Amino acid sequence: MADTFESQRRQSVFPREVEGMASGPNTRRMSRMDSRPSFQYGLSGRRMSQFSRSSISGLSFGLRDFKAPVQLQNTYRLGPTPSQTFQPRKAEDVMKSVLESYLGGEKYSTEICSNLVQQISDVIKSKIKDLGFSSRYKYVCLVTIGQNRRQGVAVASRSVWNPETDNFASASFSCGDLFAVANVFAAYFE
């Protein structure tokens, strides 16, 4: 039975013993017949590896520019310092100036205003981050622009937060036939 199985196996294209190559169950064939060293294959004829697979812990220490993450001491701070708390008055001033500079001479158009909402929101968020509040604050900026036809608009929001650290700021702008309302919510992340 074993003889018939061996005779049915397809023979290799290359003979068993080729110059420079050994045969056996634990050897791999090189893709080249000549034994000249190249950039990919070193003098040993084996392909170089970038990673070390010999680590027991599973981490690879073969990386050239590997930098260990910086570990910082715990501060055990549960809230911002008084000088770094979110101050709605400063944020409102920044929001009003951004709304006036972007919407001062604009007329309402759905195409223009849909793009302006995203731009204004990003500018307000970046300017509030530059005010120097704690870096642990996470900001959500919501800008609404609409056409002013002397109608009433009610905007409401709800959130569960810590009243000692979290706060919000709101600013509105109205000129000609458009109005805008900007809200920023600042939540302290422990």
Automatic annotation (TrEMBL):
An individual GO BP term: microtubule-based movement
InterPro entries listed in its UniProt record: Tctex-1-like (IPR005334), Tctex-1-like_sf (IPR038586)
One MF term in the entry's GO annotations: dynein intermediate chain binding
GO cellular component, one term: cytoplasmic dynein complex
Signal peptide region: none
Superkingdom of origin: Eukaryota
Annotated segments matching region Disordered: 1-35
One Pfam family it belongs to: Tctex-1
Family stated for the protein in its record: Belongs to the dynein light chain Tctex-type family.
Name of the protein in question: Uncharacterized protein
Natural source organism: Candidula unifasciata
